[in-house]
Amino acid sequence: MGAAPVADALAERAYEPVIGLEIHVQLSTRTKMFCGCELSFGEQPNTRTCPVCLGLPGTLPVTNAEAVHFGLMIGMALGCEPAPRSIFHRKNYFYPDLPKGYQISQYDIPLARDGRLGDIRIHRVHLEEDAAKLVHAGASGRIHGAEASAVDFNRGGTPLVEIVTEPDVRSAAQAAEWLRLLRVTLRQLGVSDVNMEEGSLRCDANVSIRPAGEATLGTKTELKNMNSFRFLERGVNAEVARQEELLREGGAVTQETLHFDPRTGALSPLRSKEEAHDYRYFPEPDLVPIAPTEEMLERARSALPELPAQRAERLESDMGLVPDTARLLAFRSDLGDFFERAAAARVGDDSKAIANWIVGELVANIGDADPADTKLEPESLAALVGMVREGTVAGSAAKDVLTTLVAEGGDPAEIVEAENLGAAGGDELARVVDQAMADQADAVEKIRAGNDKATGAVMGAVMRATEGRADGAEVQRLIRERL
Amino acid sequence: MTGDLLDLTAAQAGQRVRAGELSASDLFEAWRERAATDSLNAYRWVADAPPPEIAAGAPLGGVPVAIKDLFCTEGVPSAAGSRILEGYLPPYTATAVEQLAQAGAPMLGKTNMDEFAMGSSNENSGFGPVMNPWDESRVPGGSSGGSAAAVAAGLAPWAIGTDTGGSIRQPAALCGIVGLKPTYGSISRYGMIAFASSLDQAGPLTRDVTDCALLFRHMVGRDPLDSTSTGLPEEVRLPDQERLDGLRFGVPPELTRGGVDPGVAAVFEQSLRHIEELGGTLEEVSLPHSDQGISAYYVIAPAEASANLARFDGVRYGLRAEAGDLASMYEDTREHGFGDEVKRRIMLGTYALSSGYYDAYYGRAQRVRTKIAEDFRSAFERVDLIVTPTSPTVAFGLGERTDDPLAMYLSDFCTVPMPLAGIPAISIPGGLSDELPVGIQLAGPAFSENRILEAAYALEQAIGFDGSGARG
Amino acid sequence: MIDRDQVLHVARLARLRLTDEEVERMTGELSTILDHIEKISELDLDDVAPTSHVVAMENVLRPDEPRPSLPREGALGQAPDTDGVGFRVPSPGA
Questions:
Q1: Average pLDDT, chain B
Q2: Which of C12, C62, C68 sits opposite A65 (nearest CB)?
Q3: Chain-centroid distance, C-alpha A441
Q4: Residue of C nearest to B290 (CA)
Q5: Do B228 and C60 touch (CB under 8 A)?
């Protein structure tokens, strides 16, 4: 057998991506992880620092209780088991943005482990401190003819939670969708601004591929700097494609860290080869263990709101919504909250219809805005949906009413009345149908011959004549009555 | 300064101030002038202005204190004996120093030390060695050698230092003064430039046990800025017991036999006789793992130091070697800023933590540490205190041991086990051998400082050591 | 016990530049010290828990209350090189 068939076999083999995510979440505490400096939101550089977060000789860290509380909340929300006793470690490496020459992080005993969010298992959740910011000095000059940078320690020491998943993700799209779920979950917890562009939510991905159906894991690469959902998806797709091409050509993947350039979509190795990583982790002697007391655990538990995944489940089972609608309402808590208020004011069995009006017409109308910020009252929406069900306003006219309600507020029945948008009915509609059937004699013949589609022509004529105020079902009934 | 003032202990001087017989500012000025005559290289900096007014009735009476250069003091040079911090002016003051100032012990000066507290002879200072006032051709011990020499020579009424493996007790012994290494956590470490964070502990170096208790009383306390600080569960008492009746003293063969010079052993034996005469009982207790103490210590301390000294990178403070690229800037800065011993320990510690060696070195050393603590625990089920020589030798000659780092390390074997276990120990002068002081060490369980101070006081009265020979 | 290459590797991890003479001397000294430290490998420590803290404290936590930060001049005051706003360093990778 020659080489060609082997090459063909390689070329044709189907691969499956195996992806694990590492997410860094900046906590929205008031102060830093280990000192009393307030967190920075774009202040002037180096104005939010103190001897501790500058790593001055002799200073010592003291753990922020609220960061531990937020960490426990995140662990619990992700279904993890909080460790009875976790400790901090020092992670040693030199970089100008790391003032002590080590990062205080957690290593073999993280704050919480072994959880699940959606379809993805959570490996661990741990606390650590953020690094400072290194910015190119630009016009401020060069050092000995070489490029200079300037360090701003405002961000240094911001509390971070690192969330590491198991390698359960199987596609770039799934990675992005899951990250959305995580983000909305964290937002619901109120523990972080979760803004990817501003870096309060950061995602790295460990990517490997393996022949479809096999259980072994391939060599993985680590992708950094994918600071939006779109970049995450593009970066992972690019890396999967790169690895597939490598393997198809008979090559091998080397373990490395890759930087994703969102402008070009290119992946480039991040660190120089000379510095093999050796972080020399050891227990941080300046801090004592965190052993959550029953009181700490209870405080974290009782601070947990209903989480998006739970809400979606409840909207499905209790309100009878279809899964897609339920998830949309659950993941956009502003829509979910509006829905639940409207549904509470509903008459009869309108929940599904109200949900559909929200995810359909309302979202089309207001985009990403919070409906609570518009003039529309949830009760008005419920009333409008009720009118549509009763046939007192036609669907297309109801859309106009909604637009008015969003912009100006008011009572839907009054708007219908005032703008003469009420469904055409009674004698008026009967006369219109009679006229339409007379005008569309050809179509009427076809209907009589059993061609139901021909009804459309009569219907169209009725709608034109009533300017859309006619209820379709009622028109159908009147047509059949007259055949 | 009048000879009269010089002969007063700090407690006596403070008493006179409080009694209105002496003004705090005159006292400070007298000590400032005296400190300025330092010819031992004991000081790195001496106060150039009188301190703010001492509150009337301040418990320490305005008696100024010499501060080891590794305590950060706002706006005052704090270099921890290292060239890498030459000229560094901290923007804050260490908690212990702040507490002493509040209690009426203003800072007299900053004392020389082995670089980053690494050493047993003070020859590792980036600013030259300190000389022993008993014999200027000899070392004062280390690393708190400047503090010890200053107190012994009468250049300071009292001083504070830090002890990681013996750095208060050993120089106190070699200089013929009292030095206490308290229970880990009893005094805040905030503002102490860290050497080995799980071992470092501040403590007093004083002329006698009463001064020691008095200074210590105002150093202890739980500090919200130090997560590992506990304070002391009881108030420090000024000792007044002159007997040792009912106290059981353990003598561990591992720390008292092999390697102890005959002259030191003779003074130690004499102290044991004093203990018996005062009503104490002696009993042999074994500390079977103390042989491994040095090994565990010389893994743990350098490992922690390797991380603690990583912040000296030329970015935010201290020395910076100019170089065009980042790696060279780091390496040149640290090459020029650190001395040989510091580099040696950074290398040792980095190696002990590095991938593939952690378990064999750091992991095992932490387990040995557990065994050493257990040894002490079971010993203290049978005895109240343990008594040993502080140092196996008297002060040795400058330059005598600098070529053999291991030999220097091994000489710490009497003092290293206590910090590994976190327990307190004091060194008091036991007498002279060849005209040089010999230190006697008393160690007790965690937070037994009052018991240690009482026993040390009784023994001190019986020994009747005269340190005036060094105050020339 | 430790060879020249290991010494160079460790020196690189610790960002220490060693002269040839220092590498030579360090290799000898560290080997001697490590040979002595090896003593601890003779002990049976399998069932012994490691001690990283001698204080038996847990949950030493600080309330999330802001404290004043340093003015920028204070933060930059001891720096060897600044542009008046930040700490200047040679660019990584430059």
A1: 96
A2: C62
A3: 55
A4: C40
A5: yes
Using CA atoms, how far residue A149 sits from A56, A254, B52, C75, in Å, is: 21, 31, 43, 17
- Taking CB atoms and an 8 Å cutoff, what residues of chain A touch C57? 288
User: Is residue B453 a contact partner of residue B209, using CB atoms and an 8 Å limit?
Assistant: yes
B125 is catalytic: no
Measure in Å the smallest separation between the Cα of C91 and chain B Cα atoms. Answer: 6
Bridging pattern class, strands A120-129 and A159-165: antiparallel
Residue of B347, B348, B368 to mutate when probing chain C, most C C-beta within 10 A: B347
- The verdict on whether B23 is a catalytic residue reads no
| DSSP assigned state of B130 | P
Contact call for C13 and B373, based on CB within 8 A:
no
Instruction: Pick B310's closest partner by Cβ from A59, A61, A102.
Output: A102
Can you tell me the distance from the alpha carbon of A106 to that of C49, in angstroms, rounded to the nearest whole number? 19
* Helix A378-390 and helix A333-344, axial crossing angle in degrees, nearest 10: 60
Q: How far apart are CA A325 and CA A339, in angstroms?
A: 11
* E-assigned strand segments in A80-147: 81-82, 89-92, 102-105, 112-117, 120-129, 133-136
pLDDT in tens, B359-416: 999 999 999 999 999 999 999 999 999 999 999 999 999 999 988 999 899 999 999 9
pLDDT value at B3 more than 90:
no
3-state secondary structure at position A351: helix
Q: What is the mean pLDDT of each run of 10 residues along chain A (483 residues)?
A: 55 87 98 97 95 98 98 97 97 96 97 95 98 77 75 97 98 95 94 94 95 90 89 94 92 90 82 67 97 98 91 91 92 90 85 92 89 92 89 83 91 84 75 87 86 85 82 82 82
Strands A257-261 and A221-224: parallel
Concatenate the DSSP letters of all residues of A152-172 into one string: ETTSTT-EEEEEEE-S-B-SH
Per DSSP, chain A holds a count of helices (H) and strands (E) of 17, 15
**CA B215 to each of CA B65, B97, B185, B237, B365: distance values in angstroms, whole numbers, following the listed order:** 9, 11, 16, 11, 34
Cross-chain residue pair C10–B371, CB shorter than 8 Å = no
A466 or B223: whose pLDDT is higher? B223
Torsion of CA A379, A382, A388, A391, to 10 degrees: -80
CA gap B310, B315 in Å, rounded: 11
Per DSSP bridges, beta strands B43-46 and B107-111 are antiparallel
Cβ of B317 within 8 Å of Cβ of C78? The answer is yes
Choose which CATH entry (1.10.12, 2.30.30, 3.30.1890, 1.10.10) describes domain A426-482. 1.10.10
Cβ pair A39, A31 in contact under 8 A: yes
H or E segment at B461?
A: helix B449-463
Nearest CA in chain B to A151: B315
How far does the CA of residue A46 sit from the closest CA of chain B (Å)? Answer: 12
Give the pLDDT of residue A274: 42
Residues spanned by CATH 3.90.1300.10 within chain B?
3-247+383-470
Using an 8 Å Cβ cutoff, are A325 and A356 in contact? yes
Shortest Cα distance, chain A CAs vs residue C79, angstroms: 11
The CA-CA-CA angle for residues A220, A223, A228, to 5°, reads 140
CATH code for the structural domain at B3-247+383-470: 3.90.1300.10
Q: Which residues of B touch C70 (CB under 8 A)?
A: 91
Q: Show me where the domains of chain A are located.
A: 3-301, 308-418, 426-482
Interchain CB contacts (distance < 8 Å): A and C: 142
Fold designation for C4-41: Histone, subunit A (1.10.20)
Is residue B184 within 8 Å of C54, Cβ to Cβ? yes
